[in-house]
Design brief:
The protein has 254 residues and is α/β, with parallel strands linked by helices. The chain has a single domain, classed as Rossmann fold, CATH 3.40.50.720. Helix content is 45%, strand content 15%. The protein contains eight helices and seven strands; from the N terminus they run βαβαβαβαβαβαααβ. The protein has a seven-stranded parallel sheet, sandwiched between helices. The structure holds nicotinamide-adenine-dinucleotide. Nicotinamide-adenine-dinucleotide binds next to helix 1, helix 4 and helix 6.
């Protein structure tokens, strides 16, 4: 089935660095965007900014770990028009050595990053299958594929998000629904400022062929492609947005 004439995207973690760039990018392309995050005021402020720029947007509070709230928000959206695009950007991180990793932090991170993503993908996916069209785009990380030290639960959740994405692609592919992940190296957002000091930044940029971090707008551009009708046959991919990092070995002095 073809895409609906009005495209409607729901973004989790939409007030964060990547989520906000995705919301702005999709709105500029003509989507109505439903910006969801923990803080309703931050969602409303971004929606107002997008509306001021001529886009169509609304904000809504959503904690992705709250299954009842996820179901309620999707039901509320059903009355307005179906959500045909889901972008899952909500995530938290806490660096610590694996042998010292606090089990409570482990559970909390799994709950937000993996189970929260599952809740939203299930609610959205059921509706997309019924509509015969849909785009699910998970925001993963290269940490889902390689064991950068001290990323503990975060890396494990991103590995899980990659597999969840592939499962969705395999099971929903016959219904006009695609599921793909965007897996960045560090992106210049509040999250990275929280975990990378100057020394970490130098180490990373020395090992990324592009010699810099990704910008949130570059993640948004990849999401916009995967959400497009033209990407109908792109399904089950983990798209590394990494400046060449995953393709390269040790980079010698330049
Ligand atoms: N910044 C990076 O370097 C980087 C690199 C690779 C992947 N990523 C991924 O990109 C995505 C966005 O990261 P970001 O850099 O924008 O981080 P961010 O911290 O700026 O944004 C994350 C957002 O998620 C929200 N959030 C946290 N817990 C939530 C919950 N329970 N329910 C709903 N929302 C919740 C936060 O309020 C925040 O607005 C994440 O999935 C992250 O893992 C980021």
């Amino acid at each position: 089935m073809a895409a609906p004439s009005e495209r409607r995207a729901l973004i989790t973690g939409g007030a964060g660095g990547v989520g906000a760039a995705v919301a702005r990018g999709l709105a500029r392309t003509g989507y109505h965007v439903v910006i969801t995050d923990l803080d309703p005021d931050a969602c409303a402020a971004l929606a107002a900014e997008i509306a001021q720029d001529g886009g169509s947007a609304e904000g809504a509070a959503l904690n992705v770990t709250d299954r009842a709230a996820v179901d309620a928000l999707f039901s509320e959206q059903d009355a307005k028009g179906s959500i045909d695009t889901l972008v899952t950007s909500a995530a938290i991180v806490k660096p610590a050595p694996i042998l010292d990793f606090d089990p409570d932090d482990w559970a909390r991170i799994l709950d937000v990053n993996l189970t929260g993503t599952f809740h939203c993908c299930q609610a959205a996916g059921r509706r997309m299958v019924q509509a015969g069209f849909g785009r699910i785009i998970t925001i993963s990380s290269v940490n889902g594929q390689i064991a950068n030290s001290y990323r503990g639960a975060y890396s494990c959740t991103k590995g899980g998000v990659d597999m969840l994405t592939r499962l969705l692609a395999a099971e929903l592919g016959a219904s006009g629904v695609t599921a793909n992940a965007v897996a960045p190296t560090p992106v210049d957002t509040p999250m990275i400022l929280q975990v990378h000091g100057a020394q970490d930044r130098k180490r990373w940029t020395d090992q990324i062929p592009a010699a810099r971090y990704a910008q949130p707008e570059e993640v948004a551009a990849a999401v916009a492609f995967l959400a497009s009708e033209e990407a109908a046959y792109v399904n089950g991919h983990i798209l590394n947005l990494d400046g060449g990092f995953m393709a390269s070995g040790i980079l010698l002095d330049r």
